[in-house]
Amino acid sequence: MRQLSHFLMCPPDHYGVEYEINPWMDRRRSARSDLALQQWLALRHLLEEHGAKVSCLAPVAGLPDLVFTANAGLVKRNMVVLAQFRPVERRGEEEHFRRWFAEHGFRIHTLPRGTFFEGAGDAIFCGDVLFTGYRMRSDIVAHRLLGELLKCRVIPLELVDPRYYHLDTCFCPVSRDTAIWHSPAFDAYGQRVVEAMIKDLIPVDEGEARRLACNAIVVGGSVVTNCGCPNLGRELRDRGWQHVETPLDEFLKAGGSARCLTLPLSEEQGAERNVLGDAMSAGGCRQP
Ligand code: ARG
Questions:
Q1: Does residue 64 have its Cβ closer than 6 Å to ligand 1?
Q2: Across residues 259-280, what is the average pLDDT?
Q3: Is 260 in the pocket of ligand 1 (CB under 6 A)?
């Protein structure tokens, strides 16, 4: 039976652009809280309409980026590897994420102090293979440790454009052999690795990358993104996917979109549709 998608979200009661830790953030361009709430509720509703379950973390005053639950940690089954944020501005979130996972019965793993790791924002499963992004926010050492803790193969990719500072801003697997990506966000070697490992890469152009088109959620046969991504929509429809857009501009002001606002708690996303699984079991894994 198809596993239900389950996401962790956090209502945007205290969301805002209160500091600048990525090139999208400009304190002069503050977010409108009424609109942000409307957009967040619409996204949540959309996920539920697509059959997903949504759990919520209580918002906390003074932690405006807590809405971006993708950065809470990385979940595999009942295990979570907690995030340790590089920007000091986000470090106060760590204890709230930890408490939520503890209260919900997860086995908690913590990386050594001083090792930065920003959760599912920088670590995306395709079946048993974990693609990770490093340099901007997460450390490559963290990714080696993830492989040991979660007993999975890790493919680290270097991120080179500060606008695409987390892997989930420029890369999103949608099926066993298909991924959305914005290649200029990776160094030449990383590009070659991705090209060698994933058969069908849907390129996102500069204009739509800036709408954070790659920051997509795959749920119930649909791919959910911010609005204003028609080229990506066409590519997805050509491949038999439904593309659903929902306005998330208030969150773009902080450098986040659909995927950043959700943390996958089940393995459905990207997992059941394994990029490498079949190739590997057939002994024909494509190597970079
Ligand atoms: N303002 C947040 C930050 O810079 C946005 C985080 C977006 N999250 C993500 N998974 N890409 O950390």
A1: no
A2: 60
A3: yes
DSSP the chain: -PPPPEEEE---TT----S-SSTT--TTSPPPHHHHHHHHHHHHHHHHHTT-EEEEPPP-TT-TTTT-GGGSEEEETTEEEE-B-SSGGGGGGHHHHHHHHHHTTPEEE-PPTT--B-GGGSEEEETTEEEEEESSSS-HHHHHHHHHHHT-EEEEEEB--GGG-SGGGTEEEEETTEEEE-GGGB-HHHHHHHHHH-SEEEE--HHHHTTTTTS-EEETTEEEE-S--HHHHHHHHHTT-EEEE---HHHHTTT--TGGG-EE-SSIIIIIS-SSHHHHHTT-PPP-
Of the chain, the percentage scoring pLDDT greater than 70 comes to 91
**Annotation says 166 is catalytic:** yes
Mean per-residue pLDDT for 183-211? 97
Residue 79 pLDDT exceeds 70: yes
- Predicted confidence band of residue 2 (pLDDT cuts 50, 70, 90): low
Distances (CA, A) of 76 to 7, 66, 189: 13, 21, 28
Q: In this structure, which amino acid lies at residue 205?
A: D
Q: Is 134 in the pocket of ligand 1 (CB under 6 A)?
A: no
What does the pLDDT read at residue 236?
98
* Given 6, 143, 166, 182, the catalytic residue: 166
Record the pTM.
0.92
